[in-house]
Task: inverse folding
């Protein structure tokens, strides 16, 4: 019972952060759930992210730039297929170390402050890494987030929401067909929906009372610590 409450609390907070900052569900919730209830990663968490990216895509679709996004989608396809192939041969202990390493890398990418040019080529490259990391860890936002960090907010939100909507759908299909995911993941996702919707709905209220930069730093700290624990435990 306590585990169920903690899982839903983590998902609620992650969904709230996602609605507030544009990221947080994967980077905050996934590493914590991997330590507490690893059955939620990656399948149910990808489905959780799918629900929120669908909501974001509907809200931001008018500002979508298809030319940039198409290259990211092509790269994401490559990344998802590579991730599924790798996951099909890993045992759990190896996957745990891979998960932890990728979470730490995601945090480091989020804090290095690099400013890559927003170009079709870089969209393709970032798409590969985000697709790979999103499928293996359900926290693939860092590479694409790094690329779009200085883009106008409407363009960033529209392009990234459509990219991750596609990556989550395609990644889930590939994992399902590969036997890595199944009906149990769908059931865990359905149990998560109330917490996700409540957290998403709270984001507007929370955003008026808490500073976004402090929340971003907290997410990165928690993710970094959980990633390290996944490696060393």
Result:
């Amino acid at each position: 019972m306590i585990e169920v409450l903690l899982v839903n609390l983590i998902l609620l907070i992650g969904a709230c952060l996602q609605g507030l900052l544009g990221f947080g569900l994967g980077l905050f919730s996934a590493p914590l759930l991997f330590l507490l209830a690893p059955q939620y990663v990656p399948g149910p968490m990808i489905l959780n992210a799918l629900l929120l990216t669908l909501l974001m895509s509907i809200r931001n679709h008018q500002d979508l730039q298809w030319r940039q996004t198409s290259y990211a989608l092509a790269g994401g396809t490559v990344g998802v297929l590579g991730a599924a192939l790798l996951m099909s041969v890993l045992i759990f202990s190896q996957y745990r170390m891979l998960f932890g390493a990728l979470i730490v890398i995601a945090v480091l990418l989020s804090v290095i402050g690099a400013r890559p040019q927003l170009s079709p080529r870089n969209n393709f490259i970032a798409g590969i890494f985000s697709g790979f990391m999103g499928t293996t860890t359900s926290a693939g936002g860092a590479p694409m987030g790094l690329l779009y960090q200085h883009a106008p907010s409407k363009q960033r939100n529209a392009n990234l929401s459509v990219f991750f909507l596609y990556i989550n759908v395609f990644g889930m299909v590939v994992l399902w067909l590969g036997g890595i995911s199944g009906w149990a993941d769908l059931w865990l996702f359905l149990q998560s929906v109330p917490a996700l919707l409540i957290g998403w709905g709270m984001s507007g209220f929370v955003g008026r009372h808490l500073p976004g930069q402090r929340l971003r730093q907290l997410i990165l700290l928690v993710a970094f610590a959980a990633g390290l624990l996944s490696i060393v435990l």
Notes: The two ends are 24 Å apart (CA to CA). The mean pLDDT is 89.
